[in-house]
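User: I'm new to structure prediction. If I give you an amino acid sequence, what do you actually give back? Let's try with this one:
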Amino acid sequence: MDNKDIIVAAYSKHIGSLMLDMFTVVRLVGLDFSTYDDDYYYVIDEVGGRRLLLSCVAHLIPLKNNISDTEYSMLEKCFSLNYSEIS
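Assistant: Good question. You get back a string of structure tokens that encode the predicted 3D arrangement of the chain. For your 87 residues, that looks like this:
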């Protein structure tokens, strides 16, 4: 099993979920294995709608099932209210 398989196994089930990137809440929207040959990337959305590629060298922490459902729902609502669609 190579790194790509490990990343897919660990993170594909979290696509669409809120994650913790160090001290920032982000939404994991995909995985990118083709943009650059030398690295793999998470595709994330930040509050405010900015979409970024984040190297898979970083570690995202899933928030769903790691905090209470009430807290996760509150974060989801706040994230959605503060997210502006990318045009």
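You can read the tokens as a compact description of the fold. Here is one thing that stands out. The CA atoms of residues 7 and 50 lie 23 Å apart.
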